[in-house]
Design brief:
The chain has 732 residues and is an all-beta fold. The chain is built from four helices and 50 strands. The chain is elongated.
């Protein structure tokens, strides 16, 4: 039965240190709904006792208990019998609860609370302010077991609701055994990102010795900006400081920047790295893209990065890009610089150190109909399917080498007229005519601002032939064989129109490479007539199971060759072939080959085979466990690549393998290897053993390679991954 109870509540903001009779006169009335099996009201004292399944609802709070006593004279509420207080979805339980409606202070004996992802307990919780609580003998854990596998304990903790918890001292217990001590600690309890100290990593490597990494502080300035300041200490090699910033505004911009500095103990050198990127989208459709990276020296990445992939990065790239729509057209401006880090003056003479494009500008007009098409489809003719487009490209390139420097600039404009139609609804025909004009800042002969105008034409044709067969093989209901022959004819005239030394005259196309520089897409097309022939085949299968229809591509075969019809000594290029077989989801095979039609010899032959298996092997499960387990999950992945050695090249045969086995619900093992079958040696291999410890997880990995050999161990709390013990021993 639900009743309406009139309770006395203190005026907002009043938090007196003690209760006096004068306080009772300053009380205003508020309504509270309650329900219980047996409500008892005492008229003389105006006290109320709720007995049996008692419930009180007040604002956003709900109190449930076996017995609730309201003392009108003292202005207090006492709940006993497994009381539970629910406040905006968060609950706290205890042995007994007290609350003063006058001082707005309360106390909970033997509290037990679920907050976000963790559990809080203590001997008493006392409310000392509107959003401030004191907890005695506080414990926190994310373990859901009755006997927690781990917990943090503090004799004194002050909690500021939805803000932070301050404890001193703090002990970490594992199976009731203290393993770590903090003189004090601040726990953020706000939802979402929040400022606070980061938990460092420690370990040991042969190069750095014992290390302490990622000590720092994280600043969550707002939902749009944050900053991480951190430092590393390596007792053998260096100290390092870094700052990493991120910024984002949805649908407008996002980016980040990093600054790294380190002092090398052995050399006394200061080394540094700067990196930044930013993407900005404007309301008018324009966009800006920025990325920059600068290093103190060329060997910085090779000697400082932790992963083998980062250490093998031999180039850094910085660029700025701006793009903007211009009606139907689009404009793009790019400033780009690539620096190559692996140059060695003693190995290759005059190596390239950097390449700059300052600027690289492009204007593009997309395809549009050349002639307006009538609304009536029956009135449309082949010329109504003709389209035209236009593109322009200006590039200024600067290439710096160890002993030389080369600069080029050019302006290129190109327009295409293309078409597509299907006569008799069988044959697809696509003609093309291209005109290209290119101007340079200079030519190889010393001429200034030369330019040329050239054209080309071509036509492509193809068709599809189908054959469908009913079958019952391998559960397939039907097979479909598709054959697609194609031919492309291309023609480039033997002359082009050239301007140089103040004269405009036809010039032989085969002399263009002797006069003009070639860079990027600035080059004259080679003259001649070519015919490319292709034949593509595919075999598809269909499986029907109830209302479900599954289509699978079982095999494809592609053949192609190009014929030079310009009277060259060698007419046909090598015949290229590619075969793919996918007889099932677990197995895949592919082969690539090229055959010289004149020497009757292979120029290229390679095979790739992949196998992926998953399943369960009940024989590996002990008899005692088979009643509770259906089997052991297995995963096996094999990939083999073989290249036939032709000419001066040697055979190549390498195998990649990855296998994972769940030994039990808690233990799993994974093995990865990269093996050279011809040399009989491993390129790299690793073993990973994982253990699920309910609320903990442990990982041990042993890795062996020519680049890095060592082991990695980590044990961490699942819900608190930054709370971990970690060690990495490496030969790097």
């Amino acid at each position: 039965m639900t009743h309406l109870l009139v309770l006395a509540l203190a005026l907002p903001g009043q938090e007196p240190d003690s209760i006096t009779p004068a306080d009772s006169a300053a009380i205003q009335m508020e309504n509270v709904a309650y329900a219980s099996d047996s409500p008892v009201f005492f008229p003389s004292s105006r006290n109320i006792v709720l007995v049996g399944a008692s419930r009180i609802d007040y604002r956003d709070m709900t109190l449930e208990a076996d017995t609730v006593v309201y003392d009108a004279g003292a202005g207090s509420v006492e709940a006993s019998g497994s009381p539970e207080l629910i406040d905006r979805g968060e609950s706290i339980r205890g042995g007994r609860m007290y609350y003063s409606l006058i001082t707005r202070r309360g106390r909970i004996d033997d509290p037990d609370s679920r907050y976000e992802f963790g559990y809080y307990t203590g001997t008493a919780v006392t409310q000392v302010g509107r959003r401030e609580f004191n907890i005695t003998d506080a414990r926190f854990t994310t373990c859901s077991e009755d006997s927690s596998h781990y917990y943090f304990y503090s004799p004194q903790m002050k909690v500021f609701q939805n803000d932070r918890a301050v404890a001193r001292p703090v002990y970490m217990y594992v199976e009731d055994t203290p393993v770590f001590f903090f003189p004090w600690w601040v726990f953020p309890i706000r939802t979402g990102r929040q400022s606070g100290f980061t938990i460092p990593k420690f370990g040991q490597t042969s190069r750095d010795g014992r290390y302490l990494r990622d000590m720092g502080y994280y600043f969550a300035f707002s939902d749009y900006l944050d900053l991480l300041l951190s430092g590393d200490i390596m007792d053998k090699s260096r100290i390092a400081l870094s700052a990493r910033e991120r910024h984002v505004l949805r649908y407008v911009h996002h980016g980040s920047s990093e600054v790294e500095w380190r002092r090398e103990f052995q050399t006394g050198l200061d080394r540094w790295r700067l990196f930044g990127e930013h993407i900005h989208d404007f309301s008018d459709g324009s966009s800006a893209r920025l990325r920059g990276e600068v290093l103190s020296d060329r060997s910085y990445l090779k000697e400082t990065q932790q992963t083998p992939e980062a250490r093998m990065n031999n180039e850094i790239r910085s660029w700025a890009n701006f793009s903007r729509p211009l009606g139907r057209a689009s404009f793009q401006l790019t400033l780009d610089r690539t620096a190559y880090l692996a140059t060695d003056p003693d190995s290759i003479p005059d190596e390239t150190e950097s390449v700059q494009s300052l600027p690289d500008a492009k204007l593009t007009v997309p395809s549009a109909p050349l002639f307006g098409a009538p609304a009536d489809p029956s009135m449309r003719r082949p010329w109504h399917s003709l389209y035209w487009n236009l593109s322009a490209h200006y590039l200024s390139m600067d290439t710096r080498r160890e002993d030389s420097r080369e600069t080029h600039s050019g302006l290129r404009a190109q327009s295409d007229i293309t078409g597509s139609w299907k006569p008799w609804e069988i044959l697809a025909v696509s003609p093309r005519i291209t005109g290209t004009a290119t101007a340079y800042d200079r030519d190889r002969l010393g001429g200034r601002y030369p330019w040329w105008l050239a054209g080309s034409a071509g036509v492509s044709t193809s068709t599809d032939l189908y054959g469908t067969f009913s079958t019952g093989l391998f559960g397939f209901s039907a097979l479909r064989h598709t054959i697609t022959p194609s031919a492309t004819l291309g023609w480039v005239p033997g002359t082009y129109l050239a301007y140089g030394d103040g004269e405009l005259a036809p010039a032989p196309a085969d002399s263009a490479d002797d006069i003009y520089f070639s860079f990027s897409d600035f080059r004259a097309p080679p003259p001649g007539t070519t015919l490319r022939l292709g034949l593509f085949q595919s075999l598809e299968a269909k499986r029907v199971s109830g209302d479900r229809v599954e289509k699978v591509e079982l095999a494809t075969l592609e053949l192609s060759a190009t014929a030079d019809l310009s009277g060259a000594d060698t007419v046909f290029s090598p015949l290229a072939a590619r075969l793919t077989l996918t007889p099932g989801s677990a197995l895949g095979l592919s082969a690539d080959a090229s055959w010289d039609l004149y020497s009757s010899e292979f120029e290229q032959v390679d095979f790739t085979t992949t196998l992926r298996l998953t399943g369960a092997d009940q024989t590996l499960v002990p008899d005692s466990a088979r009643s509770s387990q259906s089997g052991l999950p297995l995963r096996l992945s094999l990939s083999h690549y073989y290249r036939l050695g032709l000419g001066e090249e040697s055979d190549l045969s390498k195998l990649r393998a990855s296998a994972a086995l769940a030994l039990s619900p808690s233990w799993s093992l994974q093995y990865d290897a990269y093996y050279d079958l011809l040399d009989g040696s491993f390129v790299s291999q690793s073993y990973t053993l994982s253990r699920d410890l309910h609320c903990w997880e442990a990982v041990f990995m042993r890795h062996i390679s020519e680049v890095d050999t060592g082991f990695y161990f980590r044990i961490n709390i699942k819900d608190l991954p930054d709370v971990k013990i970690e060690q990495h021993v490496s030969s790097f």
